[in-house]
UniProtKB/TrEMBL annotation:
The keyword Transmembrane helix applies. Keywords: Membrane, Transmembrane, Transmembrane helix. The keyword Glycoprotein does not apply. It comes from Lyngbya aestuarii BL J. This is DUF2232 domain-containing protein. The chain crosses the membrane at residues 20-40, 52-76, 88-112, 121-138, 150-178. InterPro entries: DUF2232.
Amino acid sequence: MVETAFLASTASLIWFVNYYFPIGPVLRIFFPLPIALLYLRWGKREAWMGALTSLLLLTVLMGPTRSIIFLIPYGWMGVAMGGLWKRGANWFVSIGVGAIIGSIGFFFRYWLLSILLGRDLWVYATTQITELAEWIFIKLGILAQPSLTLVQLIAVVMVVVNSAIYLFVVHLVALLILDRLKSPIPRPPHWVQVLLDYEG
């Protein structure tokens, strides 16, 4: 119970500090790790308790909107990563599942903020990607207007790829930190071990 409260508070504090004192993507890497560590040490029930406790703490500190944006995707991601790591899932599976959760979280955040602001933010994002696609078409000498379907497909692919890269970095950090906390995660693919010169 004490460790659950401590790690839930840690997750909340990392989110809180990053929101008010952003220092780039550094702290973002740690968002799901306290909840994943809870799963590795104590199991599914405690991991969900930790995620929900973080939600309640952040609701008090920052309000319900920002707290729900923590839970979806990062609290959920922490529970999923902890479960997959405890079952010994390989990195391709855990990164894939995490990337799906991260992408769902991205679109949930867009949907929620669109409701709160009273305007469709997806239209704005689509407009920006259309301009990028037109620039690429011009540089490639393609004399065609990118279709709305193509633009939206590019947007979705960009979100998923970004989530996968984020999850890969989270896995690298978890590999280095959780081993030292005596809660190791599955070993990375051989090429990653060679790249890092890591002996697990």
